[in-house]
From TrEMBL:
Stored InterPro entries: Acyl_CoA_acyltransferase, GNAT_dom
UniProt domain N-acetyltransferase: residue ranges: 1-149
Organism: Virgibacillus siamensis
Name listed for the protein in its UniProt record: N-acetyltransferase domain-containing protein
Pfam families reported for this sequence: Acetyltransf_1 (PF00583)
Length: 149
């Protein structure tokens, strides 16, 4: 599901080589298994939305500083967008960060031009803060957004 959602989000804006590398590095079986079974303050684990034994969404975050959380990943099955699944997943990550780890602020990075993610985050109260231009991949600009929680 994460792979399908990644392709649906970035298939028109990122090279196939980039997408295949991200999938190989982040969405391989071993890494996902580890991230599903382990959690701590830095990585709170995955919250997974399941319907009829099928994964329809997943999200995860962690703490990046004292009182500061970050949403690291959120994906919804492309065929299930706009049903509130992403909102419930974000709420779960936020609740964990606030209640278990004492977060008062939350950050998220979103690729510039990601018109699926940006409106979602802004509708949840995230405000644009700055652009982060990676030296190794200067065409894939990350927009940093934050909100008080």
């Amino acid at each position: 599901m994460c792979i399908r959602a990644y392709w649906a989000t970035y298939g028109e804006t990122h090279s196939n080589k980039w997408i295949e590398r991200v999938i190989r590095d982040f969405y391989n079986h071993e890494r996902i298994l580890k991230e599903v079974t382990e959690s701590n303050r830095d990585w709170g684990g995955y919250f997974v939305a399941v319907e009829k034994e099928k994964v329809v969404g997943a999200a995860g975050g962690g703490m990046i500083d004292e009182g500061v959380g970050e949403l690291f990943v959120i994906y919804v099955d492309p065929a299930r967008r706009n049903e509130g699944i992403g909102s419930k997943l974000l709420d779960s990550v936020t609740k964990q960060q606030k209640e278990e780890y004492g977060a008062k602020k939350q950050w998220v990075s979103v690729q510039k031009g990601n018109m699926k993610g940006i409106p979602f985050y802004e509708s949840k109260g995230f405000k644009f803060q700055y652009e982060n231009v990676p030296k190794e991949y200067p065409t894939y600009i990350k927009l940093r957004h934050s909100r008080e929680i």
